[in-house]
Amino acid sequence: KLGKDEMLSIIRHGATHVFASKESEITDEDIDAILERGEKKTMEMKEKLANLGESSLRNFTMDTENSVYNFEGEDYREKKKVITNWIEPPKRERKANYAVDAYFREALRVSEPKAPKAPRPPKQPNVQDFQFFPPRLFELLEKEILYYRKTIGYK
């Protein structure tokens, strides 16, 4: 079924052709013949579509002598083979980072005996001057550090 707009466009399309050709001798009979031919073609197409149905679509095959890979005279199967035979680039290697300064610093190191660092005493509370702790506390903390050094044998 045709819609209102489609029908109107069909009529206008044919009407412009008729009105444009006033010199030609198109009569009402010719127009009727054209309309009949159009109706016949429409009916034939409808019958073809009705006869196709789902079963014929299931058995659909492409009976062509040409290959799917042949298009406009070129065989694209060969082109695919050429693409697959590409040369792989070599694996990337990291550039060696030569730290010349560090090497010579290590190689020419003059080993001088360093004084051993004092071992760390047990952690002490953080005591600030503005907190006004009694002066005796500072003395006790200092004694604790000295005693620790004495017990481990630090000189």
Automatic annotation (TrEMBL):
Transmembrane segments: none
Keyword Nucleus: yes
A matching Pfam family: HAND
The protein's name: ISWI HAND domain-containing protein
The organism's taxonomic lineage, starting at the top: Eukaryota, Metazoa, Chordata, Craniata, Vertebrata
InterPro entries documented for this protein: ISWI_HAND-dom (IPR015194), ISWI_HAND-dom_sf (IPR036306)
Residue ranges annotated for the ISWI HAND domain, each copy included: 99-155
Keywords, sorted A to Z: Nucleus
Organism field: Cirrhinus mrigala
The UniProt record lists the keyword Nucleus: yes
